[in-house]
Amino acid sequence: xxxxxxxxxxxxxxxxxxxxxxxxxxxxxxxxxxxxxxxxxxxxxxxxxxxxxxxxxxxxxxxxxxxxxxxxxxxxxxxxxxxxxxxxxxxxxxxxxxxxxxxxxxxxxxxxx
Amino acid sequence: xxxxxxxxxxxxxxxxxxxxxxxxxxxxxxxxxxxxxxxxxxxxxxxxxxxxxxxxxxxxxxxxxxxxxxxxxxxxxxxxxxxxxxxxxxxxxxxxxxxxxxxxxxxxxxxxxx
Lengths: 113, 114
Prior knowledge:
The structure holds 2 protein chains of 2 kinds.
Chain A: E1 4-7, E2 10-14, E3 19-25, E4 32-38, E5 45-51, E6 56-59, E7 62-67, E8 72-77, E9 86-92, E10 102-103, E11 107-112
Parallel strand pairs in A: 2-11
Antiparallel strand pairs in A: 1-3, 3-8, 4-5, 4-9, 6-7, 7-8, 9-10, 9-11
Chain B: E1 4-7, E2 10-13, E3 18-25, E4 31-37, E5 44-50, E6 53-57, E7 64-70, E8 73-79, E9 87-94, E10 104-105, E11 109-113
Parallel strand pairs in B: 2-11
Antiparallel strand pairs in B: 1-3, 3-8, 4-5, 4-9, 5-6, 7-8, 9-10, 9-11
């Protein structure tokens, strides 16, 4: 089955700096890669996703890149703000078939003001 | 609100107790999931239901027993749990059980087994 590895497990950045979180996946058939943000005491919520037919997607200060050949994808947050502090999860799955999302172990991001 | 509601929010139970967790979604989704979130395995899939039928059981011990009476409701029945079962239990739903559809999570039930 699919296996998703996520790094780093913790990340601290100064406010205004950029943050990058990286994930690798094992199943070359996977073609859907969402990112979830979980603030302290709250539920995980989708912030951005990418499908295998594109290499990059951007939404304001966040962007995701995908390298299908290397089977890795990354989340980029620019101009970080304290409210970006949270746990971020990457996930992978196959768009067709009966395979639900497989999540990475999460990255705890701390943005220091 | 994302439309996925879990009750109770907090639960403390003894190892000999029997309790149930409830999840309800008002999004018209046909797939529902139970995830376990702990420090060791942050988002561990437990069960998947599609149109009320269980499609995946991720090697979960039998002391956890899911029930899905309809596409809008999902239960997790608990009995003779162990302290290591203490965790946050998250319910989620999506339009389909496959990937490619956003999963919406409930706020979770914080379970403590004493």
